[in-house]
Design a protein that fits this description.
Blueprint lengths: L3 E4 L5 H10 L3 E5 L9 H7 L8 E5 L5 H10 L4 E5 L13 E7 L12 E5 L11 H8 L3 E5 L7 H8 L3 E4 L4 E3 L2 E2 L1 H12 L8
Parallel strand pairs: 1-2, 1-8, 2-3, 3-4, 4-5, 5-6, 6-7, 7-8
Antiparallel strand pairs: 9-10
Length: 201
């Protein structure tokens, strides 16, 4: 089965459309401080035509309760992706799916491992490749979405090595920091779809 594919850090409606037309399963909008940061209103505007079967992901980092409430109220995401510990204090409605981020070096014990998780490096959006051996171990016990340092050049190898539930790319489909490239988005998704996955969704 093929991996779930998330294209993250989208800032323009045209790029959202390109990602969807190329076959993305999820589109991510960054509300944390970043060159890819958007406001809740802008995200709602550029995601207005996203089909229902495509997940709209709010990507945050240690948000305050007020910041999350604004994003949830105005943008109305399908998924909240933020560091695992943030869910301890945020009020997340049942209809919003939780994607806790587990960072390399802070892997939880078996009893605290979430059913679904995003596994990435210590700093988001920097293209940091994680240890695929650790990711593979986690992917055998949870639905793991692999992030960090992926591109069309290495995603096939990553899928074969890790067997993830999904893959998440941002800087790997950019020609400049924060600026997505249509051809790289298409090539990334085509590569994922052409790669047999020992895990998959």
């Amino acid at each position: 089965m093929s991996c779930l594919v998330k294209i993250c850090g989208l800032k323009y409606a045209a790029t959202v459309d390109i990602a969807i037309d190329a076959g993305a399963d999820a589109v991510g909008f960054v509300f944390a401080e970043s060159v890819r940061q958007v406001t809740a209103r802008h995200a709602a505007f550029i995601a207005a035509n996203v089909p229902e079967h495509i997940l709209r992901v709010a990507v945050m980092l240690h948000p305050t309760a007020e910041e999350w409430e604004e994003v949830n109220t105005i943008f109305c995401p399908d998924v909240l992706q933020t560091d695992a510990e943030d869910f301890e204090y945020l009020d997340v409605p049942d209809e919003v799916t939780r994607w806790p981020v587990i960072r390399e070096g802070s892997e939880p014990g078996e009893e605290n491992l979430p059913n679904v998780l995003v596994y990435e490096g210590r700093t988001s959006g920097k293209g940091e490749t994680v240890d695929w051996g650790t990711a593979r171990s986690l992917a055998r016990r949870a639905q793991l979405i692999l992030a960090g340092g992926l591109s069309h050049k290495n995603v096939a190898e990553a899928i074969r090595e890790v067997g993830p539930y999904g893959v998440d790319v941002s800087s790997g489909v950019e020609t400049a920091s924060g600026e997505k490239d249509a051809d790289l988005i298409r090539e990334f998704i085509e590569t994922v779809r052409a790669t047999p996955n020992p895990g998959g969704k």
